[in-house]
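Researcher: I'd like a structural prediction for the single chain below. Treat it as a standalone chain; there are no partners to consider.
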Amino acid sequence: ANSSTSSENRRSERAADRQSLRRQRRAATARPERVWPDGIIPYVISGNFSGSQRAIFRQAMRHWEKHTCVTFTERTTEESYIVFTYRPCGCCSYVGRRGGGPQAISIGKNCDKFGIVVHELGHVIGFWHEHTRPDRDEHVSIIRDNIQQGQEYNFLKMEPGEVDSLGEVYDFGSIMHYARNTFSRLVYKACGLRLLKTPGSFSFLFYLAKCGESLQDSSGNFSSPGFPNGYSAYTHCVWRISVTPGEKIVLNFTSMDLFRSHLCWYDHVEVRDGFWRKAPLKGRFCGDTLPAQIISTDSRLWIEFRSSSSWVGKGFSAIYEAICGGEVKRESGQIQSPNYPDEYQSNKECVWKITVAEGFDVGLSFQSFEIEKHDSCAYDYVEVRDGASESSPLLGRFCGYDKPDDIKSTSNQLWLKFASDGSVNKAGFAANFFKEMDECSRPDNGNCEQRCLNTLGSYRCACDPGYELAADKHTCETACGGFITKLNGSITTPGWPKEYPPNKNCVWQLVAPIQYRITLVFDVFETEGNDVCKYDFVEVRSGLSSDSKLHGKFCGAEKPEVITSQQNNMRIEFKSDNTVSKRGFKAHFFSDIDECSKGNGGCQHECVNTFGSYSCQCRRGFMLHDNRHDCKEAGCDHVINSVSGTIASPNWPDKYPSKKACTWSLSTTPGHRIKLIFNEVDMEAHLECAYDHLEIYDGRDNRAASLGRFCGTKKPSPVISSANKMFLRFFSDNSVQKRGFEASYRAECGGSFKAEVKTKDLYSHAQFGDNNYPGGSDCLWVVTAEKGYGVEIIFQVFEIEEEADCGYDYVELYDGADTKSPRLGRYCGSGAPEDVYSAGDSIVLKFHSDDSINKKGFHVRYTSTKFQDTLHASK
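Model: Treating it as a single chain, here is the predicted structure.
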């Protein structure tokens, strides 16, 4: 009886497997060697992707895991695996498993969107485009006239031997279509989604077994089919629980009523400690005894239920919960904040105690970091300690949006804590840990002749002052340069004032007393090279090491600006290659006491040392308090009334944060316009600027006419408002972050203005009342009223350089819309002209000043009027 039941069970399983396979292969590869064994796809993410991009990749992989039986796992030793990288093809991937080594999934420029990554992963799994099915023409029509030239090959049908649809109907909502307008001429809309929105997009690859589920929430429950009313014979179910890396899963069975047999041979529930059917067995259970609580070693559990008897029991039910923190004893792995890459929950506290093998240190490298920002990280934070407990030495407490530097413990243990309060939640962090050794501690000093510098995951050799590293990168040889402690002096390149020799590497290390800063001035500068500085160059750093703060890398014939160190020492390095030689440089240096070095000069944020004095500055997002030392938080909505200045995106010149909306309301003197000039632009690119962008409006708010929406890296032409107000709105989404933008603005005289019944003002220059008008002014205003109305000009203040014929500085008025119209008068001196009325609906005001005497200027009021009988004669 047992043999018959077992045989029948196997037949049932094969039938279920055939049905599962049938559901998995809509427009799928027909070549079995391209199928990933057990649906397991190892992956590696290249180091050139940002934290937000990595988060999108992981979200897309979890999306496929949620709706199919595939599993993505970080590669360890697997021969075949995928690599997220950037190839010239842009968004592209090999279809299915290539085998024999790594294969690329290219996520190029503008491809790092959730829907696009989901689409490309569909290719990795083994799916061709839905519209390449051999039976495509029975369901859709390809209008070839709408295809971009050169892209026709993307719409060719596959051969029947390449694609196996197995009778499944065509899925018009498939994720494996292109986006609606990809490779089209944008004539008509087409089918295609960027998300798995319709059941047809994924039902073909839903379950490995007949029943079960992929569970990704931080807590949940599941039970056998029909519970508590009994289960059927020959049932096979699989549940996969997957939580955030760094978390563990606590599994509790709340009811158990299965047929009892020896070794639970027939009906049973198996729990495995990992992501697949061959993971280590935690236990096999049957009967009516509740198993003890089960805790996973990592962030995944595999639960499999099989029944082969006709005995009817209630079945089982279970609950699970993800817990963060705990003991981590592995050589390497990943830790993420709860719910990463989505926002972490409020009031969470997780503590991880990482231990690697004796004789090694623990290396920690953050891949992504976005924690609520605060000056002292008082709210949400990540804390790292050098040891195994909360009392171990503190290595750092981190928050904000900047990734912490790589961290290394001094023993084989590291303590890591994440805490969140009850308010703002962010995306959190993802970090890799690994065992690290100090190659420089070996008896041979890392095979370095003089100094060995350990780095995370590697090391490098260095030389003492007066020596340089030889070509073998291990031995040292005599060099120019030296160690200088004088308060002032001069340095030159070798052979000065003649040409410097080839293949030289000179390092000068300048050291001044504590609280002093060193200023370097180049008197003469001439080296080989251009902006790239690839051949011969000079590097200047604050500090004595080669990885200290870099002030600049210089070459060519242009003298660098004056450089002041940020501490009491400075490193100057000169390097020449074996080709072109020039005169080199001559420079002098001097030292000055730095008031900022003691208590930060009393400044809350940044203290800027100047020669003989200092000043306080605030970081972006903050503004200086009236006491000139403290900083207070500044909002992201700015009202600016100055006549000139600079504006920039949040956190400039570093990357702007995600999900940010900022505005600038610019206003200047009436009668003047605002001219905006872009200095730098570096935003996420898109054809229609649909993602991150800056939009400019010709007025006081976003209800005014748009002057343009900008994104990408190309600097727009200057933008000029039609009147004295301009409104800017910057928006960033939750994916790609770039540096943003920086722009200068200034008031410009002249323009076209509308006269109304309500009186308006017009001033000769933007700083009227504060300064005299500037020399070399040439301004033209055109004031126009509605049809049937004239324009009245009333001078309130008038003080222009006087001359008999008004030949130097003057104001001219013309009765019309341009300077070819009849002139109403030319005015100068200090007597305000009488009121002026136009005969038509327009008047032109022209103001000219030479470069000699400047006066106060003029203030005019203008309005529209029906009284046009009196016209003042020209003077």
